[in-house]
Every structure is written in C-alpha cells, then in structure tokens.
C-alpha cells in the first residue's frame, strides 16, 4: 500500500502550520520537499503512518485530518483536481475522481453509487492498512471527506451541503466541528465514510469546464494510471503478501510464492521483469517498518531486529544507519 509523495507533502505542510516540526516529519519520510513533489514518487504505508502519527503527537488537534481536508486547495489533488475543474458536470467530475483515485491515495479508493434518487461517494480504507495504523486511517479518511466536499463547493461556486455524511469514528463529545464543516446530518460509527448528494446537486454544471482541455488531461491521467498499475502488478502483490505473512520475521520467497500460487522461479522472473528482486523488496519493507516499530515504546532493539528478520540488534543497527544516517538510539533521541 502506497501514497503519492505530493499527498504526504501536503499533510506535512498542514501539520507544520499547526505546530509540528516539518524538519522532523521530512526526516521520518526520508525525502526532501522537492523529491516529494515528484508525481511518480510513491511512499510506503508504514512510512506514511509514522509521519502522520508523529504529526498527530505534535499537534494539539484531535481532528487534524478533518481540518487538513478543509484547508487543502484543489491544487493539492494534482491532475485529478485539474480534471474535475474541466469536467462538464459534478457527476462527471466525481466519476473521474473515482476512476483515477489510485493516482492520489491508493489506501482509500473512491466509488460512486446511485441509491434511489441520490448518489453516494463512498470511501472505505484498505483493511490491512487500517489495521496497521487505525489513527492514520481515521484522520486520512476524514480529510478525504472534508476535501471532497470542499472540492464540490468550489466547482459549483456555492455552499451547498450534502444530504448526509457517514463517518467511521464513534460519535465524539465534540460534534460541533463536524457540524460546522459538513453542515449536514451526521451518522457516526459507520463501516465506511460517505457523502450523499441528490441527483439534482450532481447535475450542476462545473463553471470552469473545458472539453478540449479535459480530453488532454484524461489522456495524461490514463497514461499515469497505466504506469502505476504496471509498477504495482507483481511488485504490489509481493509487498502485500510479505506484510500479510509477517509473524515473527520476514517470510521466505518460498512462502510468498506459495501464497500467490506461483513457483519461486516464476515469481523471480516476474520481479526481474519489473526491475526488482525479492531481496530488494524485503529491504524496502524492513526500512519502512523499522520507523514504525521504533515508535512503539514496548519494543526493544532486540525485539525489532527479530521482527525484521535480523540475527541480532547490532546487525539491525548497522542497516538502520545505512538507511537513515543515524543509529536507532540516535534517532530515538532526536524524536
């Protein structure tokens, strides 16, 4: 599970405005602001989770995700926002948002469903990612809901509220912030997040529509999506299998191949065709998970080394220093 670098950078910028240390968050991400702006850069879920969890620990805001989504401008969504701005109607704009949602946050796919005389824009976090970091998933989902509503209102140039809103968190004591942002009936404790609109609302024209430019942008987005899907074919499946099979240490390539119903030789050949080896992928996953594990106070360096498949803590420490330039204990002291 990965996130676009641009999406993560937007979250870092907002957290910094709220009092978090941008330098700390960029260090955890392992990227510069410039590299995160690259539209092709993808960030692994464990890294995104640690960045967001750290930001939440530094920002005294229990609804940071909600406020981030309310704050972001359309430019935060990159080419998806450009497509919505040139669409003919809001219905067409939301259909494109769903079609190209993988270009932004793959962990929360969007789908638009017609329910009677209304439409539901549904968002359900990936269950594996949600289990890894319920806090990151909750705030990211609420940010998506707030941003999607703001996007709708900017495109139709009107403060029209949705018919109702579904939220996954239990009903909080402070409901006023959600009422202020959504201005609609709220349903807490739902299985997924959703915004409901009437058919009439989605028939509204997008005032900045441009058919010719829309065709160009859609072709560009289709090319990007094809590239992402090619990159995330076998590589994505192997990463997900490794994370699911992890118990005490990393699974062997034989275990992963069996999980994917492939022979080891076939799996190695497919990875090689995409410019990867099994060792490369396990190294990347170790690098990402190391930061997540270091955030857990009940884990010692010996525990972390074992979880990541290292023989001892000193071997893990050497790898960590090679990845991040500091030893694990130094990283602890800095954070």
Would you mind describing this structure in some detail?
- The chain has 335 residues and is an alpha+beta fold.
- It has 2 domains: 2-227, no CATH class; 250-334, Homeodomain-like (Arc Repressor Mutant, subunit A, Orthogonal Bundle).
- Helix content is 59%, strand content 9%.
- The chain has 19 helices and 7 strands.
- It has helices spanning 5-17, 22-29, 33-36, 45-58, 64-71, 79-86, 90-99, 127-132, 134-156, 176-182, 199-202, 211-231, 234-245, 253-259, 264-273, 278-294, 301-307, 313-324, 328-334, and strands at 2-4, 42-44, 110-115, 118-123, 164-166, 186-187, 193-198.
Distance between the termini: 25 Å
Mean pLDDT: 86
Beta-strand percentage range: 5-15%
Query: Strand pairing plus helix content: what structural class?
Result: alpha+beta
The number of helical runs is 19
Largest sheet: 5 strands, mixed
Order of helices and strands: EHHHEHHHHEEHHEHEEHHHHHHHHH
- List unreliable stretches of 5+ residues: none
Choose one word for the global shape. Answer: globular
Instruction: Please list the strands of the largest sheet in the order they lie side by side.
Output: 3-4-7-5-6
What number of structural domains do the residues give? 2
Give helix % range. Answer: 55-70%
Number of strands: 7
- Rg computed from alpha carbons, rounded to a whole number of angstroms: 21 Å
